[in-house]
Amino acid sequence: MVSLTWALTREEIRYRTGHIRDTLAAQVARGGEHAISAVSVKEVDRFLTDIKKVKMDIELLKYSRVHKALIEMTTSGSGWSPAIMWKSEMVLLTWEEELGSLRELRADLWGEGGRLEGLKRAEDLTEDVRHQVESETLINMISPGKGSTHYAPSWEIHNVEERADAFMIGHNGFPIGSWWIKTAAAHRDGIIYGLVHGITADKSKAYAVILTDNEEVSLGDEDRFRYLPPLTDPNRRKLMKNMTIRAPVRVLRTWRLHSDRRPEAGLRYDGLYFVKDFTVKLFEKPGGGDEWSWTFELERETVQQGIEKATCHPTAEEMDDWNDFQKEMADLVQSRNPSGEVNIAAVRQNRDSRYASGRDSTLTLKQ
User: Fold this and answer.
1) Cα Rg for the chain, rounded, in angstroms?
2) Has residue 91 got a pLDDT over 60?
3) Is residue 29 within 8 Å of residue 78, measured between CB atoms?
Protein backbone atom coordinates (compact mmCIF):
# COMPACT_ATOMS: atom_id res chain seq x y z
CA MET A 1 0.00 0.00 0.00
CA VAL A 2 1.37 3.42 -0.98
CA SER A 3 1.70 5.85 1.93
CA LEU A 4 0.90 9.43 0.90
CA THR A 5 1.06 12.76 2.69
CA TRP A 6 -2.27 14.28 3.65
CA ALA A 7 -2.35 16.48 0.54
CA LEU A 8 -1.01 14.03 -2.01
CA THR A 9 -3.48 11.36 -2.97
CA ARG A 10 -2.78 9.28 -6.07
CA GLU A 11 -5.13 11.47 -8.04
CA GLU A 12 -3.57 14.68 -6.71
CA ILE A 13 -0.08 13.53 -7.71
CA ARG A 14 -1.29 12.72 -11.21
CA TYR A 15 -3.18 16.01 -11.52
CA ARG A 16 -0.25 18.14 -10.37
CA THR A 17 2.12 16.21 -12.62
CA GLY A 18 -0.12 16.86 -15.61
CA HIS A 19 -0.38 20.56 -14.75
CA ILE A 20 3.40 20.89 -14.58
CA ARG A 21 4.00 19.05 -17.84
CA ASP A 22 1.11 20.37 -19.93
CA THR A 23 0.84 23.96 -18.68
CA LEU A 24 3.79 25.26 -16.67
CA ALA A 25 6.65 23.51 -18.51
CA ALA A 26 5.87 25.11 -21.87
CA GLN A 27 5.69 28.59 -20.35
CA VAL A 28 8.90 28.12 -18.38
CA ALA A 29 10.73 26.77 -21.43
CA ARG A 30 9.86 29.93 -23.36
CA GLY A 31 10.54 32.53 -20.68
CA GLY A 32 12.01 30.92 -17.59
CA GLU A 33 10.32 30.86 -14.21
CA HIS A 34 9.47 34.55 -14.58
CA ALA A 35 6.95 33.47 -17.24
CA ILE A 36 4.75 31.93 -14.54
CA SER A 37 3.44 33.48 -11.35
CA ALA A 38 5.39 33.45 -8.11
CA VAL A 39 2.53 31.45 -6.62
CA SER A 40 3.00 28.75 -9.26
CA VAL A 41 6.74 28.58 -8.56
CA LYS A 42 6.05 28.17 -4.84
CA GLU A 43 3.48 25.46 -5.55
CA VAL A 44 5.99 23.51 -7.64
CA ASP A 45 8.60 23.86 -4.89
CA ARG A 46 6.10 22.69 -2.27
CA PHE A 47 5.09 19.77 -4.49
CA LEU A 48 8.72 18.63 -4.72
CA THR A 49 8.99 18.83 -0.94
CA ASP A 50 5.79 16.85 -0.41
CA ILE A 51 6.46 14.24 -3.08
CA LYS A 52 9.80 13.35 -1.49
CA LYS A 53 7.89 12.28 1.64
CA VAL A 54 5.76 9.83 -0.33
CA LYS A 55 6.67 6.15 -0.06
CA MET A 56 6.99 5.70 -3.80
CA ASP A 57 6.57 2.47 -5.73
CA ILE A 58 6.55 1.42 -9.40
CA GLU A 59 2.77 1.19 -9.62
CA LEU A 60 2.30 4.79 -8.49
CA LEU A 61 5.02 6.02 -10.84
CA LYS A 62 3.33 4.30 -13.78
CA TYR A 63 -0.03 5.75 -12.78
CA SER A 64 1.08 9.34 -12.18
CA ARG A 65 4.12 9.72 -14.52
CA VAL A 66 5.56 12.05 -11.86
CA HIS A 67 9.08 10.74 -12.58
CA LYS A 68 8.66 11.96 -16.17
CA ALA A 69 7.90 15.47 -14.94
CA LEU A 70 10.97 15.48 -12.71
CA ILE A 71 13.24 14.09 -15.43
CA GLU A 72 12.04 16.82 -17.80
CA MET A 73 12.60 19.49 -15.15
CA THR A 74 16.22 18.40 -14.69
CA THR A 75 16.94 18.54 -18.42
CA SER A 76 19.26 21.27 -19.64
CA GLY A 77 17.28 24.03 -21.31
CA SER A 78 14.07 23.27 -19.43
CA GLY A 79 14.00 26.83 -18.12
CA TRP A 80 13.56 25.87 -14.48
CA SER A 81 15.82 27.51 -11.93
CA PRO A 82 18.90 25.65 -10.60
CA ALA A 83 17.13 25.30 -7.24
CA ILE A 84 14.10 23.54 -8.76
CA MET A 85 16.32 21.39 -10.99
CA TRP A 86 18.48 20.34 -8.07
CA LYS A 87 15.51 19.55 -5.87
CA SER A 88 13.96 17.46 -8.67
CA GLU A 89 17.23 15.58 -9.14
CA MET A 90 17.47 14.78 -5.43
CA VAL A 91 13.97 13.31 -5.43
CA LEU A 92 14.80 11.19 -8.47
CA LEU A 93 18.02 9.89 -6.94
CA THR A 94 16.17 8.97 -3.75
CA TRP A 95 13.63 6.95 -5.73
CA GLU A 96 16.30 5.31 -7.85
CA GLU A 97 18.21 4.10 -4.81
CA GLU A 98 15.11 2.08 -3.90
CA LEU A 99 13.53 1.28 -7.28
CA GLY A 100 16.35 1.33 -9.83
CA SER A 101 16.66 3.53 -12.90
CA LEU A 102 13.49 5.22 -14.11
CA ARG A 103 14.06 6.91 -17.48
CA GLU A 104 12.34 4.22 -19.59
CA LEU A 105 9.71 3.24 -17.04
CA ARG A 106 6.33 3.18 -18.80
CA ALA A 107 2.78 2.09 -18.15
CA ASP A 108 1.77 -1.20 -19.75
CA LEU A 109 -0.24 -0.19 -22.83
CA TRP A 110 -1.78 -3.65 -23.17
CA GLY A 111 -2.54 -4.41 -19.52
CA GLU A 112 -5.53 -3.56 -17.37
CA GLY A 113 -6.35 0.13 -17.73
CA GLY A 114 -3.86 0.54 -20.58
CA ARG A 115 -4.76 2.45 -23.72
CA LEU A 116 -4.65 -0.74 -25.79
CA GLU A 117 -6.34 -2.99 -23.24
CA GLY A 118 -8.52 -5.60 -24.90
CA LEU A 119 -6.78 -5.36 -28.26
CA LYS A 120 -4.86 -8.30 -29.65
CA ARG A 121 -1.14 -7.66 -29.32
CA ALA A 122 0.74 -6.73 -32.49
CA GLU A 123 3.17 -9.64 -32.25
CA ASP A 124 0.25 -12.08 -32.06
CA LEU A 125 -1.29 -10.99 -35.36
CA THR A 126 -1.48 -13.51 -38.16
CA GLU A 127 1.51 -13.64 -40.49
CA ASP A 128 -0.41 -12.24 -43.46
CA VAL A 129 -0.91 -9.01 -41.50
CA ARG A 130 2.64 -8.62 -40.14
CA HIS A 131 4.07 -7.63 -43.51
CA GLN A 132 2.02 -4.44 -43.31
CA VAL A 133 4.10 -3.05 -40.45
CA GLU A 134 6.65 -1.40 -42.73
CA SER A 135 3.93 0.68 -44.39
CA GLU A 136 2.45 1.58 -40.99
CA THR A 137 -0.90 0.03 -41.78
CA LEU A 138 -0.64 -2.62 -39.09
CA ILE A 139 -3.44 -1.43 -36.87
CA ASN A 140 -6.01 -0.30 -39.32
CA MET A 141 -9.10 -2.38 -38.82
CA ILE A 142 -11.07 -4.54 -36.50
CA SER A 143 -13.47 -7.14 -37.87
CA PRO A 144 -15.78 -5.92 -40.63
CA GLY A 145 -19.48 -5.72 -39.98
CA LYS A 146 -22.27 -3.24 -39.46
CA GLY A 147 -21.23 0.01 -41.08
CA SER A 148 -17.83 -1.15 -42.33
CA THR A 149 -18.12 -4.09 -44.69
CA HIS A 150 -15.69 -2.68 -47.26
CA TYR A 151 -12.48 -3.15 -45.26
CA ALA A 152 -10.49 -6.25 -44.33
CA PRO A 153 -9.91 -7.15 -40.64
CA SER A 154 -6.54 -6.89 -38.93
CA TRP A 155 -7.18 -6.56 -35.17
CA GLU A 156 -9.24 -8.40 -32.62
CA ILE A 157 -10.86 -7.10 -29.44
CA HIS A 158 -11.17 -9.25 -26.33
CA ASN A 159 -13.02 -8.98 -23.00
CA VAL A 160 -14.66 -5.60 -23.57
CA GLU A 161 -17.46 -5.46 -21.01
CA GLU A 162 -18.53 -1.83 -21.27
CA ARG A 163 -18.70 -0.32 -24.73
CA ALA A 164 -20.69 2.66 -25.97
CA ASP A 165 -23.06 2.17 -28.89
CA ALA A 166 -21.41 3.84 -31.88
CA PHE A 167 -24.80 4.09 -33.59
CA MET A 168 -26.12 6.82 -31.29
CA ILE A 169 -26.42 10.55 -31.99
CA GLY A 170 -24.48 12.93 -29.74
CA HIS A 171 -21.31 12.86 -27.66
CA ASN A 172 -22.28 9.38 -26.49
CA GLY A 173 -20.48 9.89 -23.18
CA PHE A 174 -17.14 10.96 -24.68
CA PRO A 175 -15.64 14.27 -23.48
CA ILE A 176 -14.32 16.60 -26.15
CA GLY A 177 -10.59 15.95 -26.43
CA SER A 178 -10.88 12.20 -25.84
CA TRP A 179 -7.79 10.64 -27.39
CA TRP A 180 -6.70 7.22 -28.64
CA ILE A 181 -3.42 5.79 -29.90
CA LYS A 182 -5.14 3.96 -32.73
CA THR A 183 -8.50 3.69 -34.45
CA ALA A 184 -8.77 0.16 -33.08
CA ALA A 185 -8.98 1.55 -29.53
CA ALA A 186 -11.64 4.10 -30.54
CA HIS A 187 -13.68 1.27 -32.06
CA ARG A 188 -13.22 -0.75 -28.85
CA ASP A 189 -14.72 2.11 -26.81
CA GLY A 190 -17.58 2.66 -29.24
CA ILE A 191 -17.16 6.26 -30.40
CA ILE A 192 -16.84 4.97 -34.01
CA TYR A 193 -17.39 1.64 -35.65
CA GLY A 194 -14.48 -0.15 -37.25
CA LEU A 195 -13.28 2.36 -39.82
CA VAL A 196 -9.71 3.36 -40.54
CA HIS A 197 -11.22 6.62 -41.71
CA GLY A 198 -14.56 7.62 -43.14
CA ILE A 199 -18.13 7.58 -41.92
CA THR A 200 -19.80 5.48 -39.24
CA ALA A 201 -23.43 5.00 -40.30
CA ASP A 202 -26.39 2.64 -40.41
CA LYS A 203 -29.26 2.53 -42.90
CA SER A 204 -30.86 5.75 -41.65
CA LYS A 205 -28.05 8.25 -40.93
CA ALA A 206 -24.42 8.91 -40.01
CA TYR A 207 -23.02 9.14 -36.48
CA ALA A 208 -19.29 9.86 -36.72
CA VAL A 209 -16.65 10.98 -39.20
CA ILE A 210 -12.89 10.40 -39.03
CA LEU A 211 -10.79 12.94 -40.93
CA THR A 212 -7.39 11.94 -42.33
CA ASP A 213 -5.05 12.72 -45.23
CA ASN A 214 -6.55 15.39 -47.56
CA GLU A 215 -10.15 15.08 -46.40
CA GLU A 216 -10.44 18.49 -44.69
CA VAL A 217 -10.41 21.85 -46.45
CA SER A 218 -10.37 24.98 -44.29
CA LEU A 219 -13.07 27.60 -44.87
CA GLY A 220 -11.21 30.29 -42.92
CA ASP A 221 -13.18 29.65 -39.73
CA GLU A 222 -12.07 27.23 -37.01
CA ASP A 223 -15.69 26.10 -36.61
CA ARG A 224 -16.32 25.29 -40.28
CA PHE A 225 -14.62 23.11 -42.86
CA ARG A 226 -15.25 21.23 -46.07
CA TYR A 227 -15.15 17.43 -45.86
CA LEU A 228 -14.06 15.32 -48.84
CA PRO A 229 -14.96 11.71 -47.99
CA PRO A 230 -13.11 8.82 -49.63
CA LEU A 231 -14.56 7.83 -52.99
CA THR A 232 -14.75 4.25 -51.73
CA ASP A 233 -16.86 5.09 -48.66
CA PRO A 234 -20.40 3.75 -49.20
CA ASN A 235 -21.78 5.82 -46.32
CA ARG A 236 -21.58 9.18 -48.09
CA ARG A 237 -25.31 9.10 -48.83
CA LYS A 238 -26.07 8.48 -45.17
CA LEU A 239 -24.20 11.65 -44.17
CA MET A 240 -26.39 13.58 -46.60
CA LYS A 241 -29.47 12.49 -44.61
CA ASN A 242 -28.08 14.14 -41.46
CA MET A 243 -28.60 17.54 -43.07
CA THR A 244 -32.28 16.82 -43.63
CA ILE A 245 -32.97 15.64 -40.08
CA ARG A 246 -30.53 18.12 -38.44
CA ALA A 247 -28.60 15.38 -36.67
CA PRO A 248 -24.97 16.20 -35.73
CA VAL A 249 -22.06 13.83 -36.22
CA ARG A 250 -19.04 13.23 -34.02
CA VAL A 251 -15.87 14.50 -35.74
CA LEU A 252 -12.50 12.90 -35.01
CA ARG A 253 -9.16 13.96 -36.49
CA THR A 254 -6.09 11.80 -37.00
CA TRP A 255 -2.45 12.81 -36.87
CA ARG A 256 -2.19 12.02 -40.59
CA LEU A 257 -4.69 14.74 -41.50
CA HIS A 258 -3.18 17.48 -43.68
CA SER A 259 -4.55 20.31 -41.56
CA ASP A 260 -3.30 22.62 -38.85
CA ARG A 261 -6.16 21.29 -36.71
CA ARG A 262 -4.77 17.77 -36.59
CA PRO A 263 -3.51 16.29 -33.30
CA GLU A 264 0.22 15.82 -32.88
CA ALA A 265 -0.34 12.08 -32.58
CA GLY A 266 -3.09 9.50 -32.55
CA LEU A 267 -6.81 10.11 -32.94
CA ARG A 268 -8.76 12.88 -31.17
CA TYR A 269 -12.46 13.64 -30.69
CA ASP A 270 -13.16 17.30 -31.53
CA GLY A 271 -16.90 17.51 -30.88
CA LEU A 272 -20.26 17.58 -32.69
CA TYR A 273 -20.74 19.10 -36.15
CA PHE A 274 -23.82 19.71 -38.30
CA VAL A 275 -23.95 19.11 -42.05
CA LYS A 276 -24.78 22.55 -43.46
CA ASP A 277 -24.47 21.84 -47.18
CA PHE A 278 -23.28 19.25 -49.67
CA THR A 279 -22.55 18.95 -53.40
CA VAL A 280 -22.40 15.94 -55.69
CA LYS A 281 -20.48 16.04 -58.96
CA LEU A 282 -19.81 13.50 -61.69
CA PHE A 283 -16.26 13.46 -62.98
CA GLU A 284 -14.26 11.33 -65.39
CA LYS A 285 -11.63 9.10 -63.80
CA PRO A 286 -8.07 9.20 -65.25
CA GLY A 287 -8.25 5.53 -66.24
CA GLY A 288 -11.64 5.89 -67.82
CA GLY A 289 -15.18 5.70 -66.52
CA ASP A 290 -17.14 8.07 -64.33
CA GLU A 291 -17.15 8.60 -60.56
CA TRP A 292 -19.35 10.60 -58.22
CA SER A 293 -17.56 13.10 -55.98
CA TRP A 294 -19.23 14.18 -52.73
CA THR A 295 -18.33 17.29 -50.73
CA PHE A 296 -19.85 18.27 -47.39
CA GLU A 297 -19.70 21.52 -45.44
CA LEU A 298 -19.67 20.92 -41.68
CA GLU A 299 -20.13 23.47 -38.92
CA ARG A 300 -19.39 22.97 -35.24
CA GLU A 301 -22.32 22.89 -32.83
CA THR A 302 -22.23 26.00 -30.65
CA VAL A 303 -23.74 24.53 -27.47
CA GLN A 304 -20.74 22.48 -26.38
CA GLN A 305 -17.26 23.03 -24.98
CA GLY A 306 -14.91 25.06 -27.17
CA ILE A 307 -12.43 23.49 -29.56
CA GLU A 308 -9.63 24.47 -27.17
CA LYS A 309 -10.77 21.60 -24.94
CA ALA A 310 -9.68 19.31 -27.75
CA THR A 311 -6.52 21.01 -28.99
CA CYS A 312 -4.76 20.55 -25.64
CA HIS A 313 -4.64 16.85 -26.54
CA PRO A 314 -2.56 14.78 -26.79
CA THR A 315 -1.21 15.65 -23.35
CA ALA A 316 2.34 14.87 -22.24
CA GLU A 317 1.10 11.62 -20.70
CA GLU A 318 -0.68 10.65 -23.92
CA MET A 319 2.48 11.43 -25.90
CA ASP A 320 4.42 9.12 -23.56
CA ASP A 321 2.18 6.24 -24.59
CA TRP A 322 2.22 7.20 -28.26
CA ASN A 323 6.02 7.27 -28.38
CA ASP A 324 6.27 3.98 -26.54
CA PHE A 325 3.86 2.36 -28.97
CA GLN A 326 5.90 3.61 -31.92
CA LYS A 327 8.99 2.04 -30.36
CA GLU A 328 7.15 -1.27 -30.07
CA MET A 329 6.21 -1.11 -33.74
CA ALA A 330 9.83 -0.34 -34.65
CA ASP A 331 10.94 -3.34 -32.59
CA LEU A 332 8.50 -5.48 -34.51
CA VAL A 333 10.00 -4.41 -37.83
CA GLN A 334 13.62 -4.77 -36.67
CA SER A 335 13.01 -8.21 -35.19
CA ARG A 336 12.08 -9.71 -38.54
CA ASN A 337 14.52 -12.24 -39.96
CA PRO A 338 15.43 -12.51 -43.68
CA SER A 339 12.52 -14.91 -44.30
CA GLY A 340 10.07 -12.25 -43.14
CA GLU A 341 9.08 -13.99 -39.92
CA VAL A 342 8.90 -12.02 -36.69
CA ASN A 343 11.09 -13.01 -33.74
CA ILE A 344 8.35 -12.84 -31.11
CA ALA A 345 10.74 -13.43 -28.21
CA ALA A 346 12.85 -10.42 -29.22
CA VAL A 347 9.80 -8.18 -29.51
CA ARG A 348 8.54 -9.16 -26.07
CA GLN A 349 11.98 -8.77 -24.51
CA ASN A 350 12.34 -5.23 -25.90
CA ARG A 351 8.84 -4.30 -24.78
CA ASP A 352 9.21 -5.72 -21.30
CA SER A 353 12.56 -3.97 -20.82
CA ARG A 354 10.86 -0.65 -21.47
CA TYR A 355 8.32 -1.36 -18.77
CA ALA A 356 11.21 -1.97 -16.38
CA SER A 357 13.86 0.75 -16.15
CA GLY A 358 16.70 2.59 -17.83
CA ARG A 359 17.65 5.85 -16.12
CA ASP A 360 21.29 6.29 -15.16
CA SER A 361 21.18 6.73 -11.38
CA THR A 362 24.68 8.24 -11.38
CA LEU A 363 23.44 11.38 -13.20
CA THR A 364 24.10 14.57 -11.27
CA LEU A 365 23.04 18.13 -11.93
CA LYS A 366 25.64 20.28 -13.63
CA GLN A 367 25.89 23.66 -12.02
Assistant:
1) 23
2) yes
3) yes
